[in-house]
Amino acid sequence: MNPSFAGKDNGSNHEIHSALKTSEEIPWCKSLLDFLKEMAENNHLEEKWNNFLKSDKIFNKFASNIILAFDNNYNVQELKDISFREKRRSSEQLDELIKKCIQSLLESSKDSDRKKLQCFGYQLTRHRGETTMKALNLSTQKQYFLRKEWNDVRLMIGDELFCHIYKNYLIFERTSEGSLVQFAGKNIFEFLGVSKYQAAMDKSNLKVSKCCKYNIKNKDDHYINNINDVMWNNMKSRTRIFYCTQYNRNTQFFKKHLLMKDHNTLSAVDRAEKLFQDIFRFNRIRKDLKTNVVNILTHMVEKIKKFRFSYYLSKSCPLPENWVERKKVILSHLNDDRQAKAKYYEELFSYTIENKCVTQFLNEFFYHTLPKDFMTGKNRKSFQSKIKKYVGLNKHELIHKNLLLGKLDIKSIKWLGFKTSKKNYHYFDKENRFVLWRILRWIFEDVVVSLIRCFFYVTEQQKSYSETYYYRKNIWDIVMKYSIADLNRETLEEVPKEDMVKWKNELRFAPGKLRLIPKKTTFRPIMTFNKKIVDPEGKTSKMTTNTKLSYSHLMLKTLKNRMFKDPFGFAVFNYDDVMRKYEEFVLKWRQVDRPKLYFVTMDIEKCYDSVDREKLSQFLGTTQLLSPNFQIIKVQILKRNNNIVIDSQNFKKKKMRDYFRKKWQKIALEGDQYPSLFNVLENDQNELNAKKTLLVENQKRDPYKKKALLDPVIKICRHNYIEFNRKYYKQTKGIPQGLCVSSILSSFYYASLEENALGYLRKESMDANDPNITLLMRLTDDYLLITTKENNAILFIEKLINVSRQNKFKFNMKKLQTNFPLDPSKLNKYGMASVEDQNIAHDYIDWIGISIDMSTLALMPNINLRRKGILCTLNMNMQTKKASMWLKRKLKSFLMNNITRYFRKTITNREFSNKTLNKLYIAGAYKYMQCCIEYKDHFKTNTEIHPQLDKIICAIIYSVTRAFFKYLVCNIKDSIYDREHSRDFSIATLRHFIEIFSLKKNHFSGVVKILVAKEQKMLEEKDNACMTAIEN
């Protein structure tokens, strides 16, 4: 038998994971079924086993899901020799045979054999000269092979070949979701590692220019030692500009920044030298260039003392007219309740500073502090446009290195000038680019960020996603006073710092931080728990409050699964849960001949703040849904590297680490049982969320008691402290919203209340003459009820209102929505003043961003189709090295994220699917066009690529929309669309992109022409096909 190598023949199994097919380290991989069939074809199996292989469907299914592979160190000749020998089968049990195999691996002189997955959990011990194998803990790898199917394999191929495969091959089993779990062989993740020798070789092969990057202050600052250090080549995140509340002149920029620090004790030149060291970390750049850089910094240090911050801030970003009088009026209502202050919140939140005003202030600062020859002419305009872009970026966007240096004519910058021969020109040019990059990076990351933090409060707004808003600190100070006055009345109590320190030392938690998100007439308080925990001795650990609760969070995820599975309450936790339940209900409704339905949607007001902490603690302590024992399992998961797309046409095998990376993930398992990783993944409710990937478990499972994991959760809920504007507060009501466990705790609390009040809704009847079926779901604080009985709907509203009054929480009655009128005599009981307050839905009802057709139950996502609403969700982050791949990946994400369920026959129809497609195309085309503007702008000066950009943009549209249609047809179960819709689908797609790109025809005239020509060609083909069909 001659195993076929991966490049030539991978067998009939086309679902082998790409990590095995694309990696140089794995020359051969094949399913066990193909392996056995090849043995049968070569007459290496006995006749009865040939018949067994042909007839036993259960075994065939098992064997087709087992994947065998070996690495480059494997000797194929050994397999050939064993295959031709007589099949010998011993009388010993499979368990004993596997034990002998493991012991022989442990006794091997090769370190690689002793590290194989089969050996995990075992070690050799010597006693009185005898060597025995001892199990340190239960091995799931060994238990996995003690199955009837593997015993059949052993009987089929003989003990010797079975042991050979078990000891030398990489063995995987494929799960129902297409993932591969490894149980034997060298850990696949070892191929991702780099040996010290290889790392040294890689560094020695680096080409470092003579006048750049080898300039060092000491050996640790050598560029080769820091080539992967973010500090050297990447920009930092802009998140530092957000949520800075301090605006006192004695803090931040004016006290801590090196430009201002020690101005009384150090001369301007000395401070410039310190700045130079801080920016570059090394001394050895050419002498005249260093002198020029130090002179620039000295000029900044001297000029910044004379810069009139208040004048230029007032000039560029003025406060509202009559601000002093308005401030007095607004503060006079400080102690009113939140509802009475709604108009003042709305007024304060309207005082945003436009991006161009912030940009103008920053440009004024640099105009007066930087030397005039720092940037001149077009370079100055380009520098100012970069500041404008930086200010206008969305929350998670960055300016990358190439974009920061782009459009700058470096040769025309005088202070970077040099004289040299043509031979050495590129060395000096590289050095100039590196020095300019470091200075610009310092200006943006350090100076610009510090100035923004000092004078502005930067935040996002409710329902504006990642779009950034700037407020003057004077305005935001009033917002903070208003909000803390409301919070002190509702959920917080100010405490002295000593109380917080005592709590921190006793419970070993760090206080949370509070920030405010503006809403239209109020605010949303957000607590974050990312501060490092400090022990009583003052040492800062790497652990935060959320990381300390991570294992408790894993335990509570099992509670979430049990609530959904048993069922307990009516909580759903994500869109998959929602769609799964919704689809089940739609199928039942169709079975009983589509009777009339009654809809109700409700919303809990201040969901987290309304949780009764004592009742929650009691529910958690007494619930039978939590097992008394848990095990934490740690799993290695293979992930594809970002920006890597394997080209099937020009495929070339590479090192596995070039395509893939490793990620650790943990989950909690209930009870004392010890299921294999494969069995864990086959559970529908598992939390690994690992689809079509590779997984390995090779660490001991840690046991925990329920009480040990639950105690810290209860403590932090009962005693939570937060920091806000340098003051400390204790939470007096509800649970903290920003904790990793808060979502599950809140859902469990309301589920416990629902279980007693709404159990009657579980009684169902499928009688076609008098059907009684109900769907009730609550996602966090949003309820949706669909029922065939009007009485059920009315009783549901009444019971929930009674439950809320008994447990001291409220429903937002303005959001109560039904498709039937309520009894006018009960409106007062529901908290409504008159009949006009009723919100009666017609045709469609909206819930959590989904529109439901009340007559057909078809679904459609609510997508904001206004240009501003679409673009505020766009995070550009253009990657300049593989810009075309970035553009393609962006368009894919715009069209293909979280849309699967909207195109299934079981829960929607063609009309709604087409509407959904139209919305996706409009939103996707707007975002794609914005990315294309950035893409074309980047290559504007590239004479080779620029003429081809329109063709590339169009080619990406063709490629992605074809892939999108293929995904809709092939990957979605019960899809609305078939292959026959391909041409109509493509024409409709092109029309949407033509319409959107025509809005900027001056910028994309070439793109529009190409797309229109393509549309015309497809229409002609369609007409010809119709004519041919008529003639036939």
TrEMBL record:
Domain Reverse transcriptase: 498-852
GO molecular function, one term: telomerase activity
UniProt protein name: Telomerase reverse transcriptase
Source organism (scientific name): Euplotes crassus
Localisation per UniProt entry: Nucleus; Chromosome, Telomere
Family that this chain belongs to: Belongs to the reverse transcriptase family. Telomerase subfamily.
Superkingdom, taxonomy of origin: Eukaryota
Function: Telomerase is a ribonucleoprotein enzyme essential for the replication of chromosome termini in most eukaryotes. It elongates telomeres. It is a reverse transcriptase that adds simple sequence repeats to chromosome ends by copying a template sequence within the RNA component of the enzyme.
UniProt-listed Enzyme Commission number(s): 2.7.7.49
Xref: Gene3D superfamilies: 1.10.132.70, TERT catalytic subunit-like
Any single GO CC term annotated in Swiss-Prot or TrEMBL for this entry: telomerase catalytic core complex
Keyword Magnesium: yes
